[in-house]
Amino acid sequence: MTAISPETADAAAILDRVEASLKNDLVPVEIFNDEAVFRAEIEQIFTKCWVFVAHESEIPKPGDFVQRRIGLDPVIVTRDGKGGINVLSNYCRHRGTQVCQTDAGNSRFFKCPYHGWTYSNNGDLVGTPHMHDAYGERLDPKAWGLIRAPRVATRQGFVFASLDPDGPSLDEYLGGAGWMLDLIVGLAPGGMRVAGPPERYRLRADWKTAAENFAGDGYHVDTLHWSVEEVAVAQGMQATCEIARIYEFENGHAFAGHAWTKAIHPGYVLWGYAPEITQHFDLSGLDEAQLHVVNHEPPSVGTIFPNLSFIRLNTPSVPGGPMSVITSFRQWQPIGPGEIELWNWQFVWDFMSEDEARDSYVNGQFTFGSAGIFEQDDTVAWEGAPRAARSPWMRKAGMEFHLQQGNNSQVDQSHDPSWTGPGRKRNTGYGEHAQLHFYRHWLNVMRGNTGAGTEGAESA
Amino acid sequence: MTTTETPRIVPPVSANPELQALATQFLALEARLLDEGREEEWYGLLDDELLYTVPIRQAAEPRSQEIDRNAFRVRDTKAHVRTRLDRLNTDHAYSEIPPSRTLRIVGSVEVEEIDRPDVIKVSSALLVYRQRGIDPHFDLIPCRRYDQLRLTPSGPRLLSREIVLTETALATPNLGVFL
Question: Using 50, 70 and 90 to split pLDDT, how confident is the model at A449?
């Protein structure tokens, strides 16, 4: 348990209502646009959970850096001269000025424009103008270095940082999501790399709406995205939930896969990747459950709590055009209550030729990107919740969102008893279980429960 | 042409004022057709070999590194544009139902002749005002465009367009409109 901050105290009444609502598979509207809830999310979630900041392929060489965010804080993610990865707060220790004003680059130093305090790319303070007259002696480089994220760790090249010095390790935190990440990007030596820098677009949407959608909302696909089926870029959308498999893991992570070998044909293994791609795959490191997943029920979407999501689908960009399996990771960056920046990275296999990588990149952007023919429609649908949340009428009326889909459905939504992988698996996309899983964990973390062992409390 | 080219001190004067007028009129027509929801007519102005790109821009130093031409928000051929139009015509492309009300202001048109007699380079500034659906607010999309127009007996056709967005992070939630 963690001490309750003033922001959390303001949000406490709302959290009580969330708890009561969630018992009935409902979610109160006000959490999607509320200053106190938002401040509490930054305090309780983004300063405590492991948060994705960069992929190692974005900073391959010494001196490379990218500027990222952990919650509201700007951080510089650097590759120092010794090859180490540093996650540094972008606030000068002297007066707080941002020492880095760019999104990416290569530099050994970050010099504050205000008084010239200069930091090495490992965060150490290495220079103060007029040192003798101003300070008499050298200031301690570590004590006055840029404040570092207390913990930084990687999995499959994905760099995460935690602003909490205590708590589970990254691998413990990811749990089954790490196991899933391994089978998504670790299928070939060298793994995957970013196809380019993230593209960014601002939505008047709440980060939770995006995160819950990518956790496993198959139900929206054949309505919101129906136009993509109509123009014959996608096929068979109406079976999205029916053939879906929901994977729920500890700490709020959830993925949704699809039983392609059953729905399409038995040879449609490995997401439908072409033989030119799969010839590079080495599945020898996978356990039995992972082998089953990649071949028969591979993940299509997923959310690693709090705000990193993933999508992989086999798609042409034009009807009848060449297919490619696209992989996008995206981060829902909280900007303010009911507002995010969507950061979208297309990923390609490290072994891919330039042409293969570009085809996958272009198909990825054409479907999931700021101009993506799927994504455009999500960006608009998600803008409703914050408006409802801000409405005095809706709040007074006690509006709650309906997540009771599974309550009277005849579809078997129980946990698959034969499942030997981590977490739980359900053999249908109906029931909104991934979303409930997300919100139940959200409540737990907002209440200060960040440790492991919350799975039981979050069970439906 | 790139944003990073050393600027000429003397503004280029098109050797052929007719070309300047032709290009300016073409961009104005395009903008009006799109503002009036006449996408199919606009589509008729696209060359079969069209390449329409929106590279990714990031804050970087030196400024010449801001635009990554190997990184795309959009990289469309004419077939991609056709698919986008077909999707808009399904009546289920919700991001554009109803279609955004737009006003495209085109300015700073510069024309340059190149070594291909049937192709000219045209650069322009574009500011798109966009109001979507029942939004109480509007979005602005500022950009510079670096085009190549092919001159055909039926008039100019858009052969290539590179759109350099002024923003690093889009303030509009999607690029559901053509720039």
Answer: confident
Please tell me the predicted confidence (pLDDT) of residue A305. Answer: 98
State residue A5's pLDDT score: 58
The residue in chain B having the minimum alpha-carbon distance to the alpha carbon of residue A222 is B92
Same domain, A142 and A210: no
Residue A212 and residue A342 share a domain: yes
Contact A201 B174 (CB under 8 A): yes
Q: Is A190 on the interface with B (CB under 8 A)?
A: no
The chain B residue lying nearest A231, using CA atoms, is B87
Which chain A residue is nearest to residue B89, measuring alpha carbons?
A227
Give, in degrees to the nearest 5, the angle at Cα A184 between A182 and A187. 75
For residue B168, what pLDDT is reported? Answer: 98
Contacts of A346 (CB under 8 A, 6+ apart): A194, A195, A196, A326, A327, A328, A360, A361, A364, A365, A369
Task: Give yes or no: residues A204 and A349 share one domain.
Answer: yes
By Cβ distance, the residue of A196, A318, A380 closest to B71 is: A196
The reply to whether A90 falls in a domain is yes
Per domain, the residue ranges of chain B are 29-165
Any residues with CB less than 8 A from the CB of A424 and at least 6 apart, and which?
A: A247, A248, A415, A416
Do A155 and A226 fall into the same domain?
no
Name the nearest CA neighbour of B110 among B5, B20, B7: B20
Q: Does A239 touch chain B (CB under 8 A)?
A: no
Q: Based on the domain organization, do A450 and A375 belong to the same domain? A: yes
B93 touches chain A (CB under 8 A): yes
pLDDT-derived band of residue B15, with 50, 70 and 90 as boundaries?
low
Residues 6+ apart with CB under 8 A from B18: none
At the topology level of CATH, where does B29-165 sit?
Nuclear Transport Factor 2; Chain: A, (3.10.450)
Chain A partners within 8 Å of B58 (Cβ): 102-104, 197
Q: What is the pTM of this model?
A: 0.95
Q: Is the residue at A31 inside a domain?
A: no
* Residues A322, A447 within the same domain: yes
Domain match, A244 and A367 both: yes
Q: What is the arithmetic mean of pLDDT over B61-86?
A: 96
Paired with A327 in beta bridges are A312, A347
Report the residue of A66, A318, A367 to disrupt the B interface, i.e. the one with the largest count of B CBs within 10 Å: A318
The domain in which residue A64 lies consists of: 51-162
- Inside any domain, residue A41: no
Q: Is residue A227 part of a domain?
A: yes
| CATH code for the domain of A71 | 2.102.10.10
How many contacts, defined by CB atoms under 8 Å, are there between A and B? Answer: 120
Q: How confident is the model at residue A317 (pLDDT cuts 50, 70, 90)?
A: confident
Nearest to B92 among A230, A319, A341 (CB): A230
Asked if A317 lies within 8 A of B80 by C-beta distance, the reply is yes
Average of per-residue pLDDT across B79-101: 96
Domain count of the fold of chain A: 2
Chain B hits for A384, Cβ within 8 Å: none
Do A187 and A340 form a contact (C-beta atoms < 8 A)? no
In the prediction, which pLDDT does B1 show?
43
CB contact under 8 A, A380 and B132: yes
Does residue A399 register a pLDDT over 70? yes
The minimum CA-CA distance between B26 and chain A, rounded to whole Å, is 24
CATH number at residue A312: 3.90.380.10
Instruction: Tell me the backbone φ, ψ of residue A447, rounded to 5 degrees.
Output: -85, 0
Q: A205 and A139, same structural domain?
A: no
pLDDT, averaged across chain B: 93
Handedness of CA A414, A416, A420, A425 (dihedral sign): negative
Strand partners, A336: A339
Task: Report CB contact under 8 Å: B92, A370.
Answer: no
Specify whether the CB–CB gap between A448 and A269 falls below 8 A: no
B63 touches chain A (CB under 8 A): no
Q: pLDDT at position A460, please?
A: 46
